[in-house]
Design brief:
This protein has helices at 4-29, 33-36, and strands spanning 40-55, 58-70, 79-90, 98-108, 115-122, 127-128, 138-149, 155-158, 165-168. The chain is an alpha+beta fold. The strands form two sheets. Strands 3, 4, 7, 8 and 9 form a five-stranded antiparallel β-sheet that branches. The protein is elongated, with a radius of gyration of 23 Å. The chain starts with a helix and ends in a 6-residue tail after the last strand.
Length: 174
């Protein structure tokens, strides 16, 4: 006859196997959701460029922007929160691809209002270039978000590349 420990071991590992199976089913349930249900981004554009200065051998720009986005479609039952952020993309001779996070926000699934509507938002993080090549550059603003599920893998979503907001920085320091 089996001992109590062998029976307890069988019950515990059976329970863990069932839990693993259910977690996998929950993770698979979200596949394709982010392709079908995209947040609705009404506005993401620069409001005002506040300053562009040389700071310690690097260029630094401070700006404000307007953002209006409905993030409700990005949520489903397996999403705990979204990490939402605005990036600035630009090219320089030294570095052809530059991505700088300017602003971020965490939106919980428990929030009732999943709409971001803010005007004249000052950036949390300055637009800083590694050298002094920021003057006169064309910059694109893009809204991106990371889905953080209750169970399953993290995955990233982004604003459609055809709907990006573009602006040009001044050619002189201000």
């Amino acid at each position: 006859m089996h001992t109590v420990w062998v029976r307890l071991n069988a019950v515990v590992f059976f329970g863990l196997s069932v839990l693993l199976g259910l977690s996998c089913l929950a993770a698979f349930s979200k596949l394709g959701h982010s392709l079908k249900y995209q947040p609705i981004i009404h506005t993401l554009e620069v409001n005002k460029i506040r300053s562009l200065k040389s700071h310690g051998g690097v260029d630094r720009a401070l700006l404000s922007f307007d953002i209006h986005a409905d993030m409700e479609p990005a949520f489903h039952w397996n999403i705990k929160q979204l990490f939402i952020y605005v990036i600035a993309k630009y090219e320089t001779d030294t570095n052809p691809d530059n991505y700088v996070v300017l602003w971020d926000k965490i939106m919980e699934a428990t929030e009732t209002d999943k709409v971001i509507k803010e005007d004249n938002v000052f950036v949390k993080y300055a637009l800083v270039d590694q050298s002094d090549e920021l003057r006169g550059k064309d910059v694109e603003l893009q809204l991106m978000w990371d889905h953080m599920p209750i169970t399953g893998l993290l995955f990233k979503g982004e604003q459609d590349k055809n709907a990006l907001s573009k602006f040009t920085l001044p050619t002189e320091y201000q």
